[in-house]
Amino acid sequence: MEKKNRNQIKKTGRKPKIDPAVHRYSFNLNEVDNAKFLALFDQSGMKVIAHFITACIFQKTVKTIKIDMDAVEYHAGLTKFFGQFRGIATNYNQIVKLLNTNFSEKKASAYLFKLEKQTIEMKELLLKVLILTEEFEKKHLNRE
User: Fold this and answer.
1) What is this structure's pTM?
2) What is the arithmetic mean of pLDDT over 109-138?
3) Whether the Cβ atoms of residue 52 and residue 46 lie closer than 8 Å to each other
């Protein structure tokens, strides 16, 4: 009876791996080489150093990710600007409707003339923003 209990496989604990990594290697780096290694590891975007090392040893492709914080901030500011611009467009439509319904034709046309001047100024500002955006992309974002 005791032999039967000993031969039974216990089903508790972690399942054993099919191909466990049992071979271990060690290497030492000086300060300069370690700094280069850590810089390459950071650029790769990988989470595990062991995976990065094996990818380098077996010449697998190692992706490098560079994040330009200036470009991210510029994009965030531009997104806010265009959000405000859409809000202005909505308000513009509401103002035109109110002018047409609540004022006489003469008074509404006077206000619409002033609104049209402001719209032209806003269009010029938008064109300047587009030109600056194109210049920024040319100088700072290397698109290939």
Assistant:
1) 0.43
2) 86
3) yes
